[in-house]
């Protein structure tokens, strides 16, 4: 992991001036309804649900739908040319418990990420972010990545991957941790002390969450299109 | 609709405290990648695994360069819009460089644009014409992670691959969906179609894209349990 999280450059010509001018126009004329609800930036790490050794720095840009539900876009870096690599949904423990059992393995706990100091809000004073993180520690998240930047993919290739979050000491790659700590001038170890009082889900970590304490992998299946294309469709 | 709109997602309404925290974070954090979104596109998509299911989509588009765009996709353009997925858009030039297995996952945009389905709400048609000319030659890869159209209150299951509308029967968008959209923006898809005849048809659309059209094969992503490759035991 040398020189920051992003390796591969996206291929393509620089944006033509005409296109840029046009998009300045659309950006001015158009409304950005749901996007305007995005109000916070969280930094953390994800790893692949079938391979903990592959870890990715993840910058979450989140909006609340309500007190118990956030939806986040995930970028590989918090900059203009950040790659949109995935998304995450964050829900309260109460909502998590309403999910059918076969859905629960997709979701991961946030208790360790918060308590260890590793999940943080860049640029927000500790005392302020801790008020929110206290809540996050009790939630569950479902993260899907579409772009495997850790493999050096310069374009989003292959099928979506289910991601998991850190759950105990010894999992996070020291190089990744140090890189982030240096860039943001923070110490996970020190911040951990400020969060000792925080607690995870009231009912403890659910045994079906975190890939059922096992692992998950996605596979692509080719099927016949339903119904057969030979059937004429009639709209009334 | 299986569930009332207001119940998706379920959850307690925002507390004043959380609203204040969000406002504070928004002021302190730059949210740089989000600010780069420069277009709102409204169009339609079909589930690859069930082509009878069509959805209206709202794409918030960021251009990274002349050949690559990334989109956050919502199910509505109001502030309660739910984040339902991500689409990537690449030029024909980049598409031809992908391997054939990868190409199967992508769809063409020519018909969607020529037929008037793809619109930039509130932007005069004249302004976006040059951009539409470019986009007609692009390919997209769209993963849907929240099937709100079937009433899922929370995101369920693995991601679904989405296809673009096409001029053949299985690819035709439900007229009632189009009417609903047109009424909302006070536009006419049919009129747009006529005004877009002059947009050049691409000389070549790679038949690996829109794979179902030639091969009658669709795609499903499954998630299966697997033993995770770990760094430390146990997990979690």
TrEMBL record, chain A:
It comes from the Eukaryota. This is OLC1v1020328C1. It comes from Oldenlandia corymbosa var. corymbosa. Belongs to the OBAP family. InterPro entries: OBAP-like.
TrEMBL record, chain B:
It comes from Oldenlandia corymbosa var. corymbosa. Belongs to the OBAP family. This is OLC1v1022046C1.
């Amino acid at each position: 992991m040398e020189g920051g999280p992003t390796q591969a450059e996206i291929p393509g010509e620089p944006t033509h001036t005409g296109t840029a001018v046009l998009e300045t126009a659309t950006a001015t004329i158009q409304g950005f309804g749901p996007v305007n609800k995005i109000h916070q930036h969280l930094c953390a790490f994800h790893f692949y649900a079938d391979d903990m050794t592959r870890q990715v720095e993840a910058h979450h840009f989140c909006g609340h739908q309500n007190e118990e539900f956030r939806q986040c876009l995930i970028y590989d870096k918090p900059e203009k040319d950040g790659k949109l690599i995935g998304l995450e949904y964050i829900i309260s423990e109460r909502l998590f418990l309403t999910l059918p059992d076969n859905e629960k393995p997709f979701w991961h706990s946030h208790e360790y990420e918060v308590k260890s100091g590793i999940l943080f809000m860049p640029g927000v004073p500790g005392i302020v972010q801790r008020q929110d993180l206290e809540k996050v520690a009790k939630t569950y998240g479902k993260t899907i990545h579409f772009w495997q930047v850790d493999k050096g993919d310069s374009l989003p290739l292959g099928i979506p991957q289910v991601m998991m979050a850190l759950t105990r000491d010894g999992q996070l790659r020291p190089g990744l941790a140090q890189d982030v700590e240096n860039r943001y001038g923070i110490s996970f170890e020190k911040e951990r002390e400020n969060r000792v009082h925080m607690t995870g889900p009231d009912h403890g970590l659910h045994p079906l969450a975190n890939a059922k304490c096992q692992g998950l992998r996605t596979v692509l299946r080719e099927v016949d299109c339903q119904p057969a294309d030979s059937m004429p469709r009639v709209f009334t | 609709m299986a569930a009332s709109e207001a119940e998706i997602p379920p959850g307690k309404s925002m507390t004043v405290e959380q609203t204040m925290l969000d406002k504070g974070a928004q002021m302190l954090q730059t949210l740089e990648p989000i600010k780069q979104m420069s277009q709102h596109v409204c169009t339609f998509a079909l589930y690859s695994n069930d082509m009878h299911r069509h959805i209206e989509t709202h794409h918030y588009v960021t251009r990274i360069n002349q050949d690559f765009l990334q989109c956050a996709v919502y199910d509505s353009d109001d502030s309660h819009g739910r984040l339902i997925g991500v689409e990537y858009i690449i030029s024909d030039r980049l598409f031809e460089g992908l391997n054939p297995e990868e190409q199967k996952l992508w769809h063409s945009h020519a018909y969607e644009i020529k037929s008037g389905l793809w619109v930039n709400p509130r932007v005069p048609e004249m302004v976006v014409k040059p951009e539409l000319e470019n986009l007609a030659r692009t390919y997209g890869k769209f993963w849907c992670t929240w099937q709100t159209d079937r009433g899922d209150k929370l995101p369920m299951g693995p991601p679904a691959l989405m296809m673009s509308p096409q001029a053949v029967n299985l690819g035709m968008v439900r007229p009632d969906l189009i009417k609903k959209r047109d009424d909302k923006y006070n536009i006419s898809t049919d009129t747009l179609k006529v005004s877009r005849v002059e947009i050049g048809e691409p000389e070549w659309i790679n038949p690996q894209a829109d794979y179902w059209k030639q091969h009658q094969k669709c795609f499903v992503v499954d998630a299966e349990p697997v033993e995770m490759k770990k760094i430390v035991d146990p997990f979690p």
